[in-house]
Design goal:
The structure is a single chain. The chain is built from four helices and six strands; from the N terminus they run ααβββββααβ. With 276 residues, the chain is α+β, with helices and mostly antiparallel strands. The protein has two domains: 1-99; 106-275, no CATH class. It has a three-stranded antiparallel beta sheet with strand order 1-2-5. A hairpin with a 4-residue loop joins strand 3 and strand 4. The radius of gyration is 62 Å and the shape is rod-shaped.
């Protein structure tokens, strides 16, 4: 009986020792865990502080770099503005060469055109012959003699004379219109016409002059001869396109006047319109 009680006491003591040992281990473990936790938290705090310091340094570097970049952008913007101004100036100079300014003073051009009226005139010189013949008719109211010529009353004249026809346009009617939008100058002018047809009286040559004592040449006969010579001259002038030559000459001279305007040639166009 005593042995059994003693055995139980021993077992109970061992259990108590085991419990005490386990409890001690638990307490040590708790202290160890706490120490580890404290170390971890301390290390974490140190790491965070270091990370914060590094982050702050990085942010400051970024701020400095951002400021430097902003300054670089500002300098680039200023340089771009200067380059743009330089480009604009160069473009203006280039425009002066490639697209020069053309100033057309219509009134001045018209005045210059009127001053060449004599130069633009075409002269057609000629030598023509006039022929006249006639007899006196019976002026009786008898059928058997009415319309018949009276014998020995015939007269005939043939003369030649030199003359000059002048052809040109009426420059007082010329109008000049400038259109900067279409870059054209329109010249409105009348068609050429015969301005004069004069005979040289000193050139008169009588080829035939046969008159009757009953029927002398009269002034009206001489006028008829001159008129005939002039009309024949106009016919020949028409056949030789004198009016067209006058048109062409006038337009050529006008073109020379207008193209003498600085920077006109190659930048503007001249157009001609015929007016009444």
């Amino acid at each position: 009986m005593k042995k059994k009680v003693k055995k139980k006491i021993v077992i109970a003591g061992a259990v108590l020792l085991l419990i005490a040992a386990v409890g001690g281990v638990c307490i040590w473990h708790n202290h160890a865990m706490k120490a580890l936790r404290d170390d971890y938290e301390h290390q974490q705090a140190a790491n965070n502080a270091e990370l914060d310091s590094q982050t702050q340094d990085a942010l400051e570097r970024l701020a400095d770099e951002n400021e430097s970049l902003r300054e670089a952008v500002n300098r680039a913007t200023e340089e771009k503005s200067e380059l743009q101004k330089l480009a604009d100036d160069l473009k203006k100079e280039l425009d002066k060469v490639t697209n020069p300014v053309v100033v057309v003073d219509a009134e001045q051009v018209e005045a210059e055109i009127r001053s060449i009226s004599e130069l633009a005139t075409i002269e057609y010189k000629y030598t023509n012959v006039g022929v006249f013949s006639g007899e006196i008719d019976f002026d009786f109211d008898f059928d058997w003699v009415k319309g018949k010529k009276i014998p020995f009353t015939g007269k005939e004249a043939v003369i030649s004379m030199d003359g000059t026809i002048k052809a040109g346009i009426d420059f007082s009617k010329v109008k000049v219109v400038s259109d900067d939008g279409s870059k054209t100058v329109t010249v409105k002018l009348p068609a050429s016409q015969y301005l004069s047809n004069e005979l040289d009286e000193e050139s008169l040559k009588t080829i035939i002059d046969e008159q009757s004592v009953f029927n002398k040449l009269k002034q009206e006969d001489h006028n008829y001869l001159r008129k005939q010579i002039k009309e024949t001259a106009v016919e020949y002038a028409d056949k030789n396109n004198i009016l067209q030559q006058a048109d062409d000459r006038a337009r050529l001279l006008i073109t020379d006047i207008i193209e003498a305007i600085p920077n006109f040639k190659g930048n503007y166009e001249i157009k001609f319109e015929t007016i009444e």
